[in-house]
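A brief tutorial aside. Many learners find it easier to grasp structure tokens once they have seen a single protein encoded end to end. The record that follows does exactly this for Universal stress protein. Read the sequence first, then the structure, and try to relate runs of similar tokens to stretches of the chain.
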Amino acid sequence: MAGMSERTGPVIVGVDGSEDALNAAVWAGAVAEKFEVPLHIVHAIPDAGPLLTDAAAALRASLIAEQRASAEEVLKSVEDAVRSRYGELTITVTQSDEPASKVLADLSEDASLVVLGSPEVRVGAALLLGSTTIAVTTHSSCPVVAWRGGITAPTDQPIVLGANGEQTGADAYRTAFEFADRFGVSIYAVNAWPGRRVLGGIEIPSMIDWGAVEAAQWQYVMASVEPWSERYPDVEVRYFIETGGAGQALLQHAGDAQLVVVGNRGRGLLAGALLGSTSMNMLHHSPVPVLVCHNATR
């Protein structure tokens, strides 16, 4: 997958009339300006969850009709908000009667980035009700940002990168460094390891040279980041190795960041939700925007 700097397709942002979607669009406009690509604003129909009763089906049909009627007004208000900040940015809009997840996934094939206003993704909602954010993140051909937290323009805060070698994947490393380079900020490369807990959670300090194990972990993390530091010499990197799970380690630093970047190995909802993937964990808990990159060939 090509890096952000090598793509010429637009930044795609999905909007639905909510304040979160408006703020996500403004943030997406800032990213599009930094990467010198157009912004494409999309309004589509909400994805359907299970309709358990006739009343629920009727209510959903009414909401969809209301959204269709307001789509033009929503698109115009969002476009005006972005243009008020980024007057030179090329902006296009689309209104579709197809489900948002399908529209955004299709558009992602020629896009640089997809952005969605997503305050949080509840695991229960992802399993039972369906989630546009989960569906788009799973099926997108380009990186996806779940925007939240109130940041509508680049700041001087760092970008947190989940640094776990091949499990993170080259796309996540590349994208994190590209954002840091364009935003002029540093990267916090965060790695998680189990520490002195071994099989069955039993500690056997007399049998293991923990100093050597920890030194090897530091070497592993720094070696995984080094090729990208050489490509982007102006990006300062700080390294952190935390004890515990990957999601917990990233959350320790997310509050001080403007963006968290993670790689995603999963391809399905159940794999992410039930197995507790790092990407699902961050989509659920992160207080700042989360950028998810697939690290396998699609």
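Self-check: The longest strand covers residues 91-99. If you spotted this yourself, you are ready for the next section.
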